[in-house]
Amino acid sequence: GAVVSQHPSRVICKSGTSVKIECRSLDFQATTMFWYRQFPKKSLMLMATSNEGSKATYEQGVEKDKFLINHASLTLSTLTVTSAHPEDSSFYICSAQPGHRGQGETQYFGPGTRLLVL
Amino acid sequence: AQSVTQLGSHVSVSEGALVLLRCNYSSSVPPYLFWYVQYPNQGLQLLLKYTSAATLVKGINGFEAEFKKSETSFHLTKPSAHMSDAAEYFCAVSVNDYKLSFGAGTTVTVRA
């Protein structure tokens, strides 16, 4: 149980285009989903917290207009990288938290999406 | 704010030897602590978590971790390393909210 999928697993796009990444909880409902960015040989950096039916909460330094997050249902959150540039190239990972948001709740992670912007 | 520090960015062990990955946390309130494993080009998989119940936590794949408040530590161990244990390991902490703060990660290589 507690499986999270991401699509696509890998995407290459041209500079200036927009890319949408989907994150789905396959066997549970997720009130809260998280989006992380991971640079090579580095740890995960939380970008934003996505709450179903409300606006995402972005971490300091993350551009809201560049990284659009939508959490339209309890099983789907999307991250759209708008007007992508080479510096946006990275490994993007989502996670989902079952049930109600609470202390110590386990986050289940997706397999990640490798974005390369040319 | 809470944080974790993983001592040692790279650990190399022989197959069959003890695996010890160190994690120290900083928190002004009782923390929730997690260990995750990441295989190349994949997401993170939960190994185990501490949520103020037993201080010795057993996880998957033979791993366990012990919460020591006096040492503010949550080190991860496995008695006998297997080749499949080669991966990146992350310690993470959560305090009053649901957010996770990750350590820098420790790369484990296993020698045959």
Q: What topology emerges from the helices and strands here?
A:
The complex is a heterodimer of chains A (118) and B (112).
Chain A: E1 4-7, E2 10-13, E3 19-25, E4 30-38, E5 44-51, E6 57-58, E7 67-73, E8 76-81, E9 90-98, E10 108-109, E11 113-117
Chain B: E1 3-7, E2 10-14, E3 19-26, E4 32-38, E5 44-50, E6 56-58, E7 64-68, E8 73-78, E9 87-94, E10 101-102, E11 106-111
Parallel strand pairs in B: 2-11
Antiparallel strand pairs in B: 1-3, 3-8, 4-5, 4-9, 6-7, 7-8, 9-10, 9-11
List the keywords.
heterodimer, A: 118 residues, mainly beta, seven-stranded mixed sheet, four-stranded antiparallel sheet, 0% helix, 53% strand, globular, B: 112 residues, six-stranded mixed sheet, five-stranded antiparallel sheet, 11 strands
Structural write-up:
The complex is a heterodimer of chains A (118) and B (112). With 118 residues, chain A is mainly β. Chain A is 0% helix and 53% strand. Chain A starts with a strand and ends with a strand. The model of chain A has no long low-confidence stretch (mean pLDDT 90). Chain B is an all-beta fold. Chain B is 0% helix and 55% strand. In chain B, the strands form 2 sheets. In chain B, strands 2, 4, 5, 9, 10 and 11 form a 6-stranded mixed β-sheet that branches. A 5-stranded antiparallel β-sheet of chain B has the order 1-3-8-7-6, with no helix packed on it. Chain B is globular. Chain A binds chain B through residues 4, 6, 32, 34, 42-44, 46, 49, 91, 93, 95, 97, 101-112, 114, and chain B through 32, 34, 36, 41-46, 49, 51-52, 90, 94-100, 102-105.
